[in-house]
């Protein structure tokens, strides 16, 4: 995980493929942070084997990275998250927080554990409480592929 996270930080400053970020909710609770890290890592590992993530976008065309939905200076007060990160030998300095990236430059978002974003036209959602219409919702299935669940 550390080598992947180091690579993501390096690629932020370089010319790259279109960018997709996986970002959790603003409370940065443990399930949001872990979901962001694990889904982005997984999608980067399987993207060469993936078919289509939606009708118009092939996953292999994107570089996928996790974003912690907090400012870097706020990270130490997210004690549950920082405890888990340290316990799992992940270097805090390798994490990318929302103030370290220009979100306007992101081509696609995967929202995990929330469903509200100003970038609605560029979002896919993984959440158990989807209440907003006109969005795409995707779910991670046992078959290890992403499928469209509902599109209003």
Task: Describe the model.
The protein is an alpha/beta fold. It has one domain (2-151): inorganic pyrophosphatase (n-terminal core) (Alpha-Beta Complex). The chain has helices at 2-12, 30-46, 79-87, and strands at residues 19-23, 63-67, 108-112, 123-126, 136-140, 146-151. It has a six-stranded mixed β-sheet with strand order 2-1-3-4-5-6, covered by helices on one side. A hairpin with a 5-residue loop joins strand 5 and strand 6 (146-151).
Structure keywords:
single chain; 152 residues; alpha/beta; inorganic pyrophosphatase (n-terminal core); six-stranded mixed sheet; 3 helices; 6 strands; globular
CATH superfamily: inorganic pyrophosphatase (n-terminal core)
Question: From the alpha-carbon coordinates, what is the Rg to the nearest angstrom?
Answer: 15 Å
CATH topology: inorganic pyrophosphatase (n-terminal core)
Number of helices: 3
- How would a textbook summarize the main sheet? 6 strands, mixed
Beta-strand percentage range: 15-25%
The level-1 CATH class: Alpha Beta
Measured distance between first and last alpha carbons: 36 Å
Give the H and E element order: HEHEHEEEE
User: What percent of the residues sit in helical stretches (DSSP H or I)?
Assistant: 10-25%
Q: Please give the CATH architecture.
A: Alpha-Beta Complex
* Count of DSSP strands: 6
Strand order of the largest sheet: 2-1-3-4-5-6
pLDDT < 50 stretches: 48-55, 132-146
> What number of structural domains do the residues give?
1
The coarse silhouette is: globular
Structural class: alpha/beta
Q: Kindly state the mean pLDDT as a whole number?
A: 75
GO molecular function: exopolyphosphatase activity
Protein name: CLUMA_CG011716, isoform A
């Amino acid at each position: 995980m550390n080598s992947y996270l180091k690579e993501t930080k390096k690629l932020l400053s370089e010319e790259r493929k279109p960018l997709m970020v996986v970002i959790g909710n603003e409370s940065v609770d443990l399930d949001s942070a872990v979901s962001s890290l694990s889904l982005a890592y997984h999608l980067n590992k399987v993207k060469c084997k993936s078919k289509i993530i939606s009708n118009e976008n092939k996953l292999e065309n994107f570089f996928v990275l996790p974003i912690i939905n907090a400012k870097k200076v706020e990270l130490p007060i997210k004690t549950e998250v920082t405890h888990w990160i340290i316990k799992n030998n992940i270097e805090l300095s390798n994490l990318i927080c929302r103030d370290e990236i220009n979100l306007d430059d992101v081509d696609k978002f995967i929202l995990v554990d929330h469903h509200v974003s100003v970038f609605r036209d560029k979002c896919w959602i993984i959440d158990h409480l989807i209440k907003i219409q006109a969005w795409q919702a995707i779910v991670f299935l046992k078959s290890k592929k992403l499928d469209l669940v509902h599109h209003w």
